TrEMBL record:
Pfam families: PaaA_PaaC. GO terms for cellular component: cytosol. Signal peptide: none annotated. One of its GO terms (biological process) is phenylacetate catabolic process. This is Phenylacetate-CoA oxygenase subunit PaaA. GO terms for molecular function: phenylacetyl-CoA 1,2-epoxidase activity. InterPro entries: Aromatic_CoA_ox/epox, Ferritin-like, Ferritin-like_SF, PaaA, PaaA_PaaC.
Length: 317
């Protein structure tokens, strides 16, 4: 492929690579819409990781044992690392980290709806690990085969860590499920509050998902939102039953004919309100991130001044 080829030839070459499952790399030609769609999705994904640190960090000082505290600290730190891999992957597409981060802060880029719900009890932390990380894995395992190489490779490492996160969450909820009546009630309450928002993480129903068809044709998404949601439900209901807990859905039932669990209606009005910025914690989450950005300005200034000094020293030598 030479750079002086006309666009229709480059497009044909790109299409052939997608068709043959050959990853697209940062320096390869790609249609601008593919690039912009990836910046949107990877940027949103990166923002989700770093905003997702907040609800869990809320419990670090109140973890019930030293072991739980150490695990939670490590998990929250992992999420920061995931954000960094993803911001780096987004940068390979030509955007700057500062630009997309600014768009998070001014509310013009999204982050996952799930992090706009509060963490009211210790059980919420177990449930986030079990359900939220569990949902994230189902979505992210599929993204390990995304057509854009830097995104797919970031996902492989992230999935390994998410799998540990999910297991520690399930272990934590298992302890509560075997505990006192108060602990079981606390767990059930956490499940009741997080069940539906977790199902919403997969995005709108396929018929209302404007980006899916093109993203699937480009093999960024390998499965539709509804397919992944169903996979998560089928994986999770047996775990819920093993815990002796219930979902807040009277219509949840095994369907012999389809071989899948059936669920009741998702409240899409709630989802739409949350992604428009009107969820319970949207304001609080963005305020926390804006404050951190402002409080960290001296670190950025010191780092860039040091970099300038080093560059000047190198030039003078
Ligand atoms: N929340 O056409 P659609 C984690 C938006 S963090 C907010 O189906 P797409 C963790 C969507 O962006 C990992 N917005 O979109 C961290 C679009 O709006 P725009 C979180 C959502 O992109 C810390 C519009 O709705 N995982 O695990 O084809 C602690 C229409 O949707 C949501 C990811 O970020 C939502 N839930 O498919 C613990 C996964 N759903 O952008 C855990 C990466 C949809 O056109 N992202 N929207 O304005 C994806 O896989 C895809 O972007 C989605 C949506 C499946 C989420």
């Amino acid at each position: 492929m030479t750079t002086d080829q006309p666009d229709h030839q480059r497009q044909a070459h790109f299409d052939a690579k997608i068709e043959a499952d050959i990853t697209i790399e940062a320096k390869d030609w790609m249609p601008d819409a593919y690039r912009q769609n990836l910046i949107r999705q990877i940027g949103q994904h990166a923002h989700s990781e770093v905003v997702g640190m907040l609800p869990e960090a809320n419990w670090i000082t109140r973890a019930p044992t030293l072991r739980r505290k150490a695990v939670l600290l490590a998990k929250v730190q992992d999420e920061a690392g995931h954000g960094l891999y993803l911001y780096s992957a987004a940068e390979t597409l030509g955007c700057t980290r500062q630009d997309i981060y600014q768009k998070l802060l001014d509310g013009t880029m999204k982050y996952s709806s799930i992090f706009n719900y509060p963490t009211l009890s210790w059980a919420d932390i177990g449930v986030i690990g079990w359900l939220v990380d569990g949902a994230a894995i189902v979505n992210q395992v599929a993204l390990c085969r995304a057509s854009y190489g830097p995104y797919a490779r970031a996902m492989v490492k992230i999935c390994k860590e998410e799998s540990f996160h999910q297991r520690q969450g399930y272990e934590a909820v298992t302890v509560l499920a075997k505990g006192s009546e108060t602990q079981r009630a606390m767990l059930q309450d956490a499940i009741n509050r997080f069940w539906w928002p977790t199902l919403m993480m997969f995005g709108p129903n396929d018929s209302d998902s404007p980006n899916s068809a093109q993203s699937m044709a480009w093999k960024i998404k390998r499965f539709s939102n509804d397919e992944l949601r169903q996979k998560f439900i089928d994986n999770t209901v047996p775990q819920l039953e093993a815990l002796g807990m219930t979902a807040p859905d009277p219509e949840l039932a095994w369907d012999e004919t389809t071989g899948h669990y059936r669920i009741g209606d998702i409240n899409w009005d709630e989802f739409n309100q949350v992604i428009k910025g009107y969820g319970i914690c949207n304001h609080e989450r963005l305020e926390a991130k804006r404050r951190a950005w402002e409080n960290g300005s001296w670190v950025r200034e010191a780092a860039s001044s040091h970099a300038r000094k080093m560059a000047a020293k190198k030039q003078a030598a």
